[in-house]
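Allow me, if you will, to draw on your knowledge of protein folds for a short while. A protein sequence and the structure tokens that stand for its backbone fold form the material at issue. I would ask you to consider whether the tokens describe a fold that such a sequence might reasonably adopt. Thank you for your consideration; the sequence and its tokens are set out here:
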Amino acid sequence: MYSKAEDMRRTVVVAEDEITNLLLLGGILSIEYNVLTAENGVQALKILKENAGRISLLLTDLIMPEMNGFDLIRTVKADPELEKIPIIVLTSSGDAKTEVECLRYGAVEFLPKPYGMPATILARVQRIIELSEDKSIIQATEKDLLTGLYTNGYFLEYALRLEEHHHERDYDALVLDIDRIKTLGDLYGEGKANRALQLAANEIIGYLADVHGIGSRFNQNTFYLLCEHQESYECLIQTIERSFSALDTDVRLSMRLGILPHIRNEEFSSDVMGQFMKAAAACSSLKAGGPSSIGFFDEKLQEQKRLKESLLKDFDQAIEQRQFVVFYQPKFSIEEKPSLRSAEALVRWIHPERGMISPGIFIPLLEQNGLIQKLDRYVWEEAAWQEAEWKKRYGISVPISVNVSRIDLYDPHLVQTLRSIVERFKLDFDEYLLEITESAYSSDMAQMLDVIGRLKGEGFRIEMDDFGSGYSSLTRLTDMPIDVIKLDMSFIRGLEKDVKKQDLVEIIIAMAKKFGNLVVAEGVELEEQFNILRGFGCDVAQGYYFSKPVPADEFGKFIEQKCMQEGRVC
């Protein structure tokens, strides 16, 4: 039994058949260490195994009965539980050949007999133990436990050294993203997702060995690679894709590979991370979730990156200064004489220096950086206020639909927030419509059903936006408590000259109406498209055939026309 004080001290094992030497060395070491002693290699091995994980050092003589020191060293280094224990050889021979042999077997130091000053022995033992512990710490933190690739800090340091020591070579920086890893984990469990990462890492390690490179798992599903320049990386992508067949799942994983080719030595040495950020920008520019693809960095991407960083910096001020302006695109009932039915609220950013910024730039940017909810609430408030103003001015109601982002549906206060907006501006619930993008329904079906059910319970009408853009299936019309489906504009584009597309649209409209859903077609630009949709029984159309999105004051003209059609005085 060890006392608490002894438990806090490191433990060493001394194997020595000369009792005098054993007692002498054991006594010196016991000043600072717990000492376990053995008179031969067999005893020493037994002690080591019984105390595996607690031993900081083995000191062994070479000439011992039953099992000599050479065999003991070999046995210890061949045992996975014991191999990391450092070994000091106790020797009186001074034989260089013997010492070389011991080093080859795995010994790290020699302690000559007769033993010298205790302080010298203790200092040498302390040094060996500390070096061993430092090495263990480095090994534990150097590699990612899941994949065996370098961790971030070590990778960046080794990447710099690799380039410095081989600056005559031509290197590429690569950033590889594996898409749908989260989906795989959600459907099949974390173990399956981890297995996919391990399969990819195994192929990456094998590939890097052939192209003189190093790699790191930089975060959950992103890998950083540095290797000698290759003309093509298609084989890397294909090899990883083939390895995924071992997963035996219905989730098709794909990859995006961003490349910064021909790294400049001076730029790399001064800003290692910056070079990989360029490769990451090339990776981010590729479409996520599609087929595997490869993209190369160019200065245009750098400009886009700087623009995005600038917009993120300006966002809060833009909200405060009301730089975001809500435009409204009218929706018309499809009749012989179309009439205004409602409007969709669409936000525009009018930047004081950059002018009008495309929603295609700032909406995905805000989604990726967790800011879209703040903008959504701004738009919800603006649209509700505008609806109330139109009711006061014209005396009629023109319902407005606002977009609810996927991330909004995870807000526990969403229902309360939307209800309070409607009540504050004295609107009816059927005057304030909620558009939820169809892809959001695939994220967490139970969560979506719960939230949408509660919104419906309050009286809101729900529109499934972009129906058919990604995950749709007609069975979804039976699953979801929705009121309206909006056909994605991809169905409408080219509708007038594509018979198969016409057949598909006709089937979707018929099915939706069978289930009691109103059908809206967005992206209508031509009279031929309008006439085809009317023939199929589509209820509402939206698009440039009627009007582009317009500011609120300009939209007032559409309301005035509606008043005239209905014989009202507005």
About this structure: Confidence is low (pLDDT under 50) at residues 1-6. The chain has three domains: 4-140, 152-297, 328-565. The longest helix spans residues 118-142.
